[in-house]
Amino acid sequence: MGKILIVDDDKAFSCFLKDHIKKYYPLLQVQICTDPVRALPLIRKGEVDLLLVDYEMPVLDGEKVIKYAREVGIETSRIIILSSRDADYLHQHFPLGTCLAVMNKHETAQKAVLDMVFKSLQRKAADATAG
Question: Does the keyword Hydrolase apply (predicted)?
């Protein structure tokens, strides 16, 4: 419990997010993949507790990565879409039920929501370790 896969071609953002998670949520394991095509074999049911996917990437966009994740059995409640686009745009492309959340990478309020998700995952990982 507590495995996070970040699929984002923005290496600087991905590394920032990974460092943030490691600092504040030490029970969580984070893996970064900056190439969405190479990420596909890493996306397997039971091995990813949270999938963070950038919406706009070259070669294979986030929408296709998410479609693949759902096909291999990743629950929509374990998928978060990240983007530089505003939340209204993202909600039009990913209606309710398509994923857990859509978030703008650069909005502070959105990062607070992401922290709530990490905190919940950390708590579950702690419970799994204790039990």
Answer: no
What is the distance between the terminal CA atoms of the chain, rounded to a whole angstrom? 12
Domains and CATH numbers, the chain: 3-130 (3.40.50.2300)
| Total Cβ atoms within 10 A of residue 131 | 5
CB-side neighbour CA atoms (13 Å) of 51:
29
Tokens in use for 89?
A: 């745009």
Name residue, tokens 């530089």: 84
- Kindly state the helix (H) or strand (E) to which residue 103 belongs, with its residue range: strand 101-104
Rounded Cα gap, residues 74 and 109, in angstroms: 26
Q: Given 3-state DSSP classes, what are the helix, strand and coil percentages for the chain, each rounded to the nearest 5?
A: 50, 20, 35
CA distance 11 to 2: 22
Alpha-carbon span 49 to 89, nearest angstrom: 26
List 50's β-bridge partners, or say none: 4
Query: CA 105 → CA 8, 47, 130, distances in Å?
Result: 11, 25, 33
